[in-house]
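Progress report, Aim 2. The chain analyzed during this reporting quarter is listed below.
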Amino acid sequence: MKTILGLLMAIFIGFSTQAQDKKAKDLLDKVTAKVKSYDNISIDFKYSLNNAKENINQDSKGSVVMKGNQYVLNFMGITKLFDGKKTYTIVPEDEEITVSTVNEKDDSAITPSKMLTFFNKGYNFSMDIVQNVGGKKIQYIKLVPTNAKDQRKEILVGIDSKTNNIYNVIEIAKKGTKTTLTVNSFKTNQALPKNQFTFVASKYPNYTINKLD
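Predicted structure tokens for the chain:
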């Protein structure tokens, strides 16, 4: 779940402003400005994990709705709801809910409040290849972690040149594992229910609730 959140955050982040590749920076600034203009964002996505050496090929689908620093993520049968203060991880299969408080001072924690600062440090970036995908011109930007201990070799962020929206995010690990998050549907400024980001315990009468804090 942390991996999928990391990839999702890459869709909404503000990228590093270091003077590395001006074209890359200008494009990422456009993406960031556009994201900031939305009241809320709803995404349906496909998540793929591939490792040729281990003969692993897994595909999953999911969705996420985000508004400010709140979100509801549905992925692999699990719902993760963040109301701005607490995170509720709901697992229907086990009839269990885990409640935890996000530590905003934890630099390793991936939270919605860090959407616009996630890549502000720790990466070098540059323009990469352009691909035609289903009639869309996708411009890739390569991000390389500056920390030698980072297990990721590089991250490729694909941007639709026409809309300046993210098309996909690809993480390539040093050991060969590749994870890809592809946006199938990108909707903005939807009419959301008032309780969209509110946890309602009465909806889960038979669930065990575990509080970590």
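Residues 21 and 126 are 5 Å apart (CA to CA). Helices lie at 2-12, 22-36. These observations will guide the mutagenesis work planned for the next reporting period.
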